[in-house]
Input
Amino acid sequence: MRASWLLGMRRTLRLGVETASHSPVQMASDMLLPPKQLFRALLRAHRLHLPLEMRSLGDDYVKAEFRRHQHIDNPLHIVGFCSQWKMYLDAILREAQNSNGEVHGKSLDPHLIDRFSDEQLYQLYELKLATNDVFDPKKAQSKPPAPDNSDDTP
Output
């Protein structure tokens, strides 16, 4: 009885060591899409869930980023790149599902911005300028609500 228990424990420990020996890169890469499938899924999500102006800007940005990272050999960079784009894809799909097809976005975490390199900050600034060129508040279809003055008058 004791020998079978020890044998069972040994198998359990071996399985624990085998699963623990997977690096974080390996675990993350198991959940990611291959780059080409991810690229296509991003363009499809843009086509189905973004307004025309956002789609145009998003498609151009996705294509440029994937082109820039096409010849990366470091597996850590590839996994980091794909995981960030997968999180973006999941966010688009989640927002589209929860808001009847309208994607609203979210603010960047200030702690994340603090970790950006100079090149990433410059790219973010370029993205801001590009969105300002595309979005003209004078042509916006929705207006902010007018102030309610009914409380001030008796």
